[in-house]
Design goal:
It comes from Streptomyces cylindrosporus. It contains 19 helices and four strands. By secondary structure, the protein is an alpha+beta fold. It has a four-stranded mixed sheet.
């Protein structure tokens, strides 16, 4: 029994529970919302000639506002939703692909992510093959073949963070899965053992011993701020004491486990995209802005003199030790004031994490920030309806010769 066949048999036999279906509905609504929030983003024109799954995934990820599986540090829905929708899939197809992505992410482990891989793409390509393949009617052996055919595209690196490359490589992973599923349906053959050979090559631990339920072990985290998940906790911690700040700030010391800043690769950001992956800028945005939102992550906002001044005042104290996720331990921050005063804050679990789920009202408020028309578009949303909305707002446009 190969890993590919074990995962394929699980996916083919998977039957969602009501709790799984409720999670799928939230994931669909959140993914659609954050994609629509990017309707005016420059990437829209750049990505217009990409196939459906690639185009939609890239647009849903470019603002970095989509959900995250914290146990594996993978953006599951931004891969599995577009892959399912591109071929007419439904909640079951999404959940099967999402479940495979969570299980592959667990096999890849933290070491894979810490080495610099973008696990959303590496785990995402084979998972997208399952989501699309189930929607296309593949049997278990066909799903195993599709995963093997997706292996050559299972790449992506954190060096792309802070550029268009991050969202585009997520799009490439989603499309690679769709392409692999279509090839498998057309009769292409592949060796299922390719998946576990690849897992070993990229530092993973192949296993056929994985949980059968729920669909997505550990659930999904929903973001409140449009930036890397590693910034959600420090921003939430600092917002809790923002009103206590009186007078000039002379320094901010942030203490956090070393691994929790793995994706925050820009210490001195100068663009909006770089600001989404910067712990010092997380401090600046949390202290300067009433609620860090889209306007906080523009080029102009990052380059504000007051923001750049705060960025220069941030000192990060990394606590060594074994790390397994972006929410290990806790984040603490000390704000030093010119009058000699200090303000201290700490936080272990930010709002929106599976342990602190957002209310329906919070989710609807997030959707409203993504566009005045978005809450109405979500009313009675179906998987077919979501596909129609994406086709209307992000149509395919052939590239000019």
């Amino acid at each position: 029994m190969t890993v590919a066949r074990a995962l394929a048999q699980w996916a083919h036999g998977f039957r969602p529970t009501p709790e799984d279906l409720a999670l799928a509905d939230r994931a669909l609504a959140d993914t659609l919302s954050v994609a629509l929030a990017a309707r005016t983003h420059p990437l829209r024109g750049i990505a217009a000639s990409l196939p459906d799954a690639a185009r939609w995934a890239a647009m849903a990820h470019v603002l970095d506002f989509d959900d995250l599986h914290t146990d594996t540090t993978t953006h599951i829905s931004v891969v599995a939703v577009p892959a399912a929708l591109a071929v007419g899939g439904d909640a079951r197809a999404y959940l099967a692909g999402a479940g495979v992505m969570a299980r592959l992410g667990a096999m890849l482990g933290w070491g894979h992510y810490a080495a610099g891989w973008h696990a959303t793409c590496t785990a995402g390509a084979p998972a997208a093959a399952v989501a699309a393949g189930l929607a296309l009617g593949l049997d278990a052996e066909g799903l195993a073949t599709a995963m093997a055919l997706a292996v050559p595209a299972a790449g992506g690196v954190q060096a792309a963070f802070g550029t268009h490359g991050k969202s585009l490589q997520v799009g490439f992973a989603a499309e690679a899965g769709v392409r692999a599923a279509r090839l498998a349906r057309a009769g292409a053959g592949a060796e299922p053992r390719a998946l576990e050979a690849w897992l070993e090559l990229v530092g993973g631990t192949p296993t056929t011993d994985f949980p059968a339920e729920p669909a997505i072990p550990g659930g999904l985290a929903v973001k409140l701020f449009p930036c890397c998940y590693a910034m959600q906790r420090p921003i939430a911690a600092l917002r809790a004491v923002r009103d206590q700040v009186r007078g000039e700030i002379t320094g901010v010391t942030v203490t956090t486990p070393a691994g929790t800043v793995q994706p925050l690769v820009h210490d001195r950001p100068w663009t909006g995209l770089e600001g989404k992956f910067s712990l010092p800028y997380a401090v600046a945005a949390a202290l300067l802005d009433d609620c860090p939102g889209f306007d906080s992550f523009t080029d102009a906002a990052v380059r504000r003199p007051e923001a750049q001044k705060l960025v220069d005042l941030v000192h990060v104290d990394l606590v060594p030790g074994e790390v397994g996720s972006l929410l290990d331990g806790k984040v603490a921050a000390r704000i030093d004031l010119a009058d000699g005063g200090e303000i201290y804050t700490e936080l272990a679990v930010p709002p929106g994490a599976p342990e602190r789920p957002l209310s329906d009202g919070d989710l609807r408020a997030k959707a409203a920030t993504c566009g005045r028309d978005v809450p109405a578009l979500l009313d009675g949303l179906t998987w077919t309806g979501a596909r129609d909305v994406l086709r209307r707002h992000f149509p395919y446009e052939a590239e000019e010769a």
